[in-house]
Specification:
The chain is an alpha+beta fold and 327 residues long. It contains nine helices and 13 strands. It has two domains: 177 residues, Ribosomal Protein S5, domain 2 (2-Layer Sandwich), CATH 3.30.230; 129 residues, Alpha-Beta Plaits, CATH 3.30.70. 39% of the residues lie in helices and 25% in strands. The structure holds (R)-mevalonate.
Length: 327
Amino acid sequence: MREISRASAPAKVILFGEHFVVYDRLAIVMAIDLRACVTVKPRGDKKIIIRSNTMGLSGEFSFNGDYKPILGGFECIRLKPIYIAAKNVLNLAGEVVGLDINIESEIPVASGLGSSAAVSVATTAAVGNLLEMSLSKDDIFKLALEAERVVHENPSGVDPAVSTYGGVLAYRRSGGIMRLKVNADLPLVLGDTRVIRDTRKMVLHVSEIKRLYPEVVDGIMGVGELVANLAIKALEDGDLITLGHLMNINHALLYAIGVSNLAVERLVWAARQAGALGAKITGAGGGGCIIALSLRENLYHVAESIRVADGNPLIVNMASMGVKIEG
Ligand code: MEV
């Protein structure tokens, strides 16, 4: 066993198909240049102690999962996937050892950028490396997905997939992962509404709307699938104008199933009015972040317009590197 191990994994934006992907529709997702970094060290006892600077939380899990807070109260649900990720790797290796797990992340939490999945992926890789296992990316993805099931019970897996493999992916829950060739610079502005949202709640809301209006929602999701397929072609052709149109259409479909709100609409419209080629929710909606596609020369104008509309803008770029052992 090593004395210390470190791994990092990227955040993501969903370009097309959030929510629909839960129902086995196609999603297109891109890793971005914000990372979570996890450092692990073995302990002399059997405790798993997790410290997170970004969440402002620290806590201690006994080997069988009882939780004791160190900093930040009994909010263990946010640390639990990290514990599960570490524990799954320990179980796979047949090791019974305590761990100190330290998380440093640049990814805003609960904003739709997949911070939880990035931390689960980085933890899985760091613990695997600590134990000198040679986990493949497919192994890391599967183990991290198990951990994500604790945060919301029916995750499509798109978040841990892109955090593991990086780049731009076409993802279908039942049918694997395809890396896309993108023949364009994809200049994106993120707009954080600063409204904390809850993925589990939004996914439940969509399942309720689908239960009430099954044909309508199936129709909407079918159109979402057409949009995602056209987007694959537009990405390959480097056709930003078409991509922008398709993003606006995808946003309208998400609006139709009730996952937008006033804070989101304010930022989407601020971006469009400043000349964005397209703007939409990214992730679960109900707050969190929007993304706006812009010509590079107009990025700062779009960002400023989002700021004036009460959002927190951030210019992001594609990250081709997925999970990475840092040492
Ligand atoms: C969350 O990043 C994306 C959702 O589609 C949920 C999921 O795919 O598990 C809303």
